[in-house]
Specification:
alpha+beta, 6 strands, Cathepsin B, Chain A, globular
Length: 140
Amino acid sequence: MLDKCRRIPIAQKDSFGCGIACVAFVTGISYTNAKHKLFDENKATTGGYSCRDMVRALKKFGKEYDYRYVKAGHFGNNTIVFIKRSKRYPFGHYLCRVGKGWMGLWINFGTRDMDPDHAIAGFRKRLPGRPIYAIFSRTS
């Protein structure tokens, strides 16, 4: 079951905005606010964000997170994972753990319409790839 306060998934609005959407979801703010207040906005369209960028953004919001390389594992609520680059996700992709599933920030990615303005967010039961990094709360 999902947290009552975290039921609404957040879609990414930029080609490389999956990290922004995950941080917005974890902090409970909008995508736009997270992008403008917590991130270097230029990276949203030019190549994306590293795990270090994500940890810095969360820290600006007062959240103590860290990251590490993972081979597999069980992930707690609000853990953000970066899945390995693949044919479907040529640059990799961030998703956020919620309850027994994952918040997908662009679940219709890979369809004919590749415009991030048409990205649909939702929840999925399984990760669409192999996680290689986990960004996790230091306090939980």
